Structure formats: C-alpha cells, structure tokens
Amino acid sequence: MLKIGPLEFAFPVIQAPMAGVSDLPFRLLAREFGCPFTFMEMVSFRALLHDNRTTRLRMMASPLDRPMGLQILGDDPKELEEGMRLLEGFSHDLVDFNAACPANKVVHKGEGAKFLRDPRKLHDRLRLLRMLTDKPVTVKIRIGWDVDQVNAVETALAAQEAGAAAVFIHGRTRKQFYSGVVDYGVVGRVKAALAIPLIASGDAFTPALIKKMFDETGCDGVAVARGAIGNPWLYSETKQYLATGTLPERPDTAEVARVMRHHLDMCVEAYDERRAPLVFRKFVYWYTKSLPHVKPLRVAALKASNIEQVLALINALPAKNIRLPERVAPIA
C-alpha cells in the first residue's frame, strides 16, 4: 500500500510525467491497464503565467483521470505564488515540485536539478508551496549532482523538514542524465533516512526490474517512465508479477494493433482529426520498437499527416501474430 497524504494505492506502481508523452490519452490508456495514479506533463510556471498555448494543451484533464498529479517547474518565489493562484480549482490531487530535470535549458535557469546543489533553497521553495495549497506537496530529486556530490539523503531530509508528503527519486545523478546504471544503494539509504514515503524511478522497464527496485531499496512505490511508452501492458504484467510471481504472455501483433487503434481514437477525441495523427505518429515507432521487419513502417510513421495514413501503418503490422519480447532497455 502506497500512501501520499490522503491518497492511497493498493498497487504502488504509478505513471511519471514525461514531456511530449504523458498527455491525457496516454494517461487514460495507462489507467485501463491498471495504473492507479498518473502525472500530466511537467508544467513550467513561467509558461503558465504567459498563458502559453502548448502549456494549456499539456494541462488537458478529465474526470476519468483521477487521482492525478501536477508536476511544476520553477524557482522564483513570486512566480510560484502567482502560478499557484492560477491553479486554484484545477483538477489535480497532488503538487510535485521538480528538482530533478537534468536538461541544460532548465538547469541554466536555476530550476530542476540545479536545486540538488542547494538543499536549503529547495527546502524554502517547498515550504512556500505548502503555504500556497491544501493539496499534498511532493518533490522529485535525483541522487545528486555528480559522483562528487551525491547528497540525496541531505536533500530528501530537507524536503521532509519542509513538509513534503513524499519524495520521488531518480536513481541517477544529474550528470548521468539517463545513462549509466541506477544506484539502488543510494536510493535505499534515502528510504532508510525518511519517515515519509519514497517513490523510486529509473530503469523500470520490466516487471522484474520494478520488483528489483522494491526489493533492493525498500521503496514504497515505483514511478514508471520510459518503460510504459508504447507498452501499457507493463502495468497489468507488473501487477500480476508482484502478486503471484508469474507473468502473462506478452501481447501479440493483433493486440498491439488493437491498442494502437484505441490510442489513436483517444487522441482524436482529445484533440481533433487534424492534430491527432501528428500527436500519435511518434507512438507508432514506440509500439513497434521490438517487432521485426518494421523499420520502413516506423520511418513512414514520422511522415504520416492524416488519420488514414496512420491507420494504414497500423494495419500493415505483420499479419502473423508475433509476440512482443520483453523490453529490457530504453525505447530510444
């Protein structure tokens, strides 16, 4: 059982926010396969205050997508105050402060992973957020800035002291971005130091790797990111594996095609027939990543501009019901 403030999840595996990926259709699909809690794409307070159109699209919500978390990015206290006022009445159940994003354009603004170098400043921002909302406030961190500054315990304790309801942690340093290996040992030390829940992420590509994160760190929950892109079955497979130690058969090409068509339909409903294929076509690549002899299809998908072209690509999947292999590495 994962508890974050008043939120409780019997299945402690949730969907992490991903830029350009975790839109409303993606989140609703994850829920259909058993995901109990989702995050929409990260929202920059600076963009929110400028009424950025892309940000408004990212914040598309639905009563079917609850409970749902909102991850925010920012630094300036005034922007945080103004942004939280704009979010009053929005459909979210948790506010997560991003202190983990490693992107240069984010760090150079003093946001995201830059907070890993100043845990006291992070403490102050989290305390401010606690004053501005009655929703649970959490924070996403990494294990440190680089191998010479692995300070995740200090950072997590500062967040706890500020009143955070939970800590999310990615098991790599900022310098690693998404390369190298996850440090389960550091994540485990953070868990041992905290009195609040710890939700871990990093390399959650298979049910076995998700179980490994639980077993080796003692974490309270696991946040899935890249492992679920084009692979919503990961949730139902993990739920069965954690409960019984057994795995269902991997989906075959007929099931992959069915889910792709369903996902596309949800994109049409969320956006429109003109925008939906442009949003969905990148998922054609991800859904078919592990299938043989589909490189021409994936290349064609990146040029598809209408519903008919995307459906033709889905229907062109190998007629023989080939089963997806287990995905043990990143999609990219």
Keywords:
single chain, 332 residues, alpha/beta, TIM Barrel, Non-ribosomal Peptide Synthetase Peptidyl Carrier Protein, Chain A, 2 domains, nine-stranded parallel sheet, two-stranded antiparallel ribbon, 14% strand, globular
Q: What's the CATH architecture of the largest domain?
A: Alpha-Beta Barrel
The overall average pLDDT, rounded, is 93
User: Globular, elongated, flat, extended or rod-shaped: what is the shape?
Assistant: globular
CATH homologous superfamily annotation of the largest domain? Aldolase class I
Instruction: Return the CATH class of the largest domain.
Output: Alpha Beta
- Give the structural class: alpha/beta
Main beta-sheet annotation = 9 strands, parallel
Spatial extent as radius of gyration: 20 Å
Structure overview:
By secondary structure, this protein is of the alpha/beta class. The protein contains 14 helices and eleven strands. The protein has helices at 24-32, 45-49, 53-58, 77-86, 104-107, 119-132, 152-161, 184-193, 207-217, 233-244, 253-270, 276-287, 295-301, 307-315; strands at 2-4, 7-9, 13-15, 38-39, 43-44, 68-73, 94-98, 137-144, 166-173, 198-201, 221-224. Helix 7 packs parallel to helix 8 (184-193) and helix 11 runs antiparallel to helix 12 (276-287). 46% of the residues are buried. The mean pLDDT is 93.
List the helices and strands and how they pair.
Elements lengths: L1 E3 L2 E3 L3 E3 L8 H9 L5 E2 L3 E2 H5 L3 H6 L9 E6 L3 H10 L7 E5 L5 H4 L11 H14 L4 E8 L7 H10 L4 E8 L10 H10 L4 E4 L5 H11 L3 E4 L8 H12 L8 H18 L5 H12 L7 H7 L5 H9 L17
Parallel strand pairs: 3-11, 4-6, 5-6, 6-7, 7-8, 8-9, 9-10, 10-11
Antiparallel strand pairs: 1-2
Helix pairs in contact: 1-11, 4-6, 6-7, 7-8, 9-10, 11-12, 11-14, 12-13, 12-14
